[in-house]
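hey so i finally got around to running the thing on that chain from the lab meeting. sorry it took forever, my laptop kept dying and i had to restart like 3 times. anyway pasting the input first so we r on the same page abt which one it is
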Amino acid sequence: MVSVAGEKVRMTFGESTKLNGLAFLASKFDGILGMAFPSISVKGVTPFFYRLVEENIVDDASFSFYLTSVPGSEGSKLTFGGYNKAYTSGPMRYYPLIGENYWLIALDQVKFGNASFDNLKAVVDTGTSVIVGPSDIITKLTSELPSKIDCKNLSQYPNISFTIGGDLYTLTA
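ok and heres what got predicted. didnt touch it at all, straight out
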């Protein structure tokens, strides 16, 4: 049984006995609570959030994350069944999925300095803090960066912007 905020859900658990990839070996966590689709779940196990929906524990079949801006700090939140308006600063935007294997959406454009790429696909995933993509695109995007970044001079580095559904999201250095 998994108990969250007083609600109990019967789940099938898996155990990893071997880890592949440095990301998992270097991470400090005790397990993974997958929020993906049944189509990619291991051995067809119904994912946790799907169980919440199936058992009518949540009224809204959506979930949201609030992540603090300071790594390792307290305060990040996961909300099942919608979102907490206290953690928003504007209207909520929704983008259609273009597949039901990952949280895959259309990405109109990515811009980084003088490099720009149009009509891409993106996976929105809170399980990682990295941006990955095809090597030819990533090479062009990062060619404007020195091999060693001096964090004391962040203002000299370009922003990266993502246009999704016509909405522009810009990340500063």
